[in-house]
Amino acid sequence: MAEKIFQHHFQRFETKYIISKETLLDLLLEFEGYLVEDDRAYSTINNLYYDTPSYQLIRESLENPCFDEKVRLRTYQEHPTEDSQVFLEIKKKTENLVTKRRLAADLLTAEAYLDGD
Questions:
Q1: Are 74 and 87 in contact (CB under 8 A)?
Q2: What is the pLDDT of residues 52-68, one digit of tens each?
Q3: Measured between alpha carbons, how far is 94 from 102 in angstroms, rounded to an integer?
Q4: Under 8 Å CB-to-CB from 108, ≥6 apart: which residues?
Q5: Which of 42, 48, 72, 78 is most buried, judging by how many CB atoms fall within 10 Å of its CB?
């Protein structure tokens, strides 16, 4: 069984807006003194999504737009290696409430876990 390095549980309300580039620039200027870049500010995000052989997760998501569930492997490196940190995530969205459970591991351990080892 894969060794857990650390585990997080996230819950947030998610609302998305379509805005113009001009509005984005205005917002960035407005919040400039309040925003702090973290170590992933300019990183690449790579996701690999998992589903059942019958594509149950995507079918349920398309049939019920108020509910969405995803299982994914995420990394913030463009070319991860066996010892790169990755995150196994289960993300559920009901209406606007998003709940995400995240487990960190190295890529080799995560792949072995997903293969059932």
A1: yes
A2: 999 998 898 888 878 88
A3: 18
A4: 82, 83
A5: 72
